[in-house]
Amino acid sequence: MATRLLICPPGHYDVRYSINPWMTPHVGDSAPDAARQWDRFVELIGCVGDVELVQAEPQAQTPDIVFTANAALMVGNLAIVSSFRHAERRREQPVYRAALARAGYATTFLRQTYFEGAGDALFDRVRPILYAGYGWRTERGATMQLQEIVGCRVLPLLLADERFYHLDTALCPLSSGHVLAYMDAFSPHAQTMLRRAVEPGYLIEVSVDDALRFACNAVEIEDALVMHDCSRRLRERLNAIGYRVFCTELDEFIKAGGSAKSLTLRLDDGPAAGIAAATA
Ligand code: ARG
Question: What CATH architecture applies to the domain 3-16+32-279?
Answer without folding.
Answer: 5-stranded Propeller (3.75)
